[in-house]
Known about the structure:
With 299 residues, this protein is an alpha+beta fold. The chain has one domain: ApbE-like domains (T-fold, Roll). The chain is built from 8 helices and 15 strands. β4 (122-125) and β5 (130-133) form a beta hairpin.
Amino acid sequence: xxxxxxxxxxxxxxxxxxxxxxxxxxxxxxxxxxxxxxxxxxxxxxxxxxxxxxxxxxxxxxxxxxxxxxxxxxxxxxxxxxxxxxxxxxxxxxxxxxxxxxxxxxxxxxxxxxxxxxxxxxxxxxxxxxxxxxxxxxxxxxxxxxxxxxxxxxxxxxxxxxxxxxxxxxxxxxxxxxxxxxxxxxxxxxxxxxxxxxxxxxxxxxxxxxxxxxxxxxxxxxxxxxxxxxxxxxxxxxxxxxxxxxxxxxxxxxxxxxxxxxxxxxxxxxxxxxxxxxxxxxxxxxxxxxxxxxxxxxx
Length: 299
């Protein structure tokens, strides 16, 4: 089945047809929980209340705990480059509304680029079930949260058989499809043509990040949503798109995002972590890292 959520398209499929209804129920269960907890565009979501707390410690629901823990893990795995504390930099660039509205706004004058406070500005206490942000810190959990939803749904369904969950290009795979390994299209843009190269997967996750998809105009130039926490500026390195295959969708998402900020060192970091990748330079040149699955051309 195909679906829409958070302004993104998604796909859900199961090895056994009778399991699809249960899979759909679990998908929407998790999407609703994460929407209530992690959607920064909902003024009364947990993350919005946390971002307004100005240093106060707040109770955290199990969903928010999961999301914050996943974001912290992603940041630590990427040496701080996949950082949820970049929200002030995103807001400074104008990403203060749904992307569809943002893309229609036209050029405007952005605020100054400032480095993110970093992971140390987040205190998650999983014994007391609380979370605290340092004063002035604000977080955006969107990227890691959608990857986590894909992993959670896939994990729940895995005992019943094979399942694939895709949300906005982030894919979680468990087990096989009806006719063998799942076949996943790897797109460099949001415009799916059906001719994208395809890879086969039976476990883990694959995620794609691009500095050329979610873009808008600010200060007379094109900017994007991939923020370098070291500077507060958007990604402008040698790679336009990075796809990473890893043990989970959350890990794949983190390394795909960080790859656009590591620049020429992206392949080294991906390989050192034991993952594989597909890196596309701005001139369209494709480079493969590690044991990236063999690609087939769609017919």
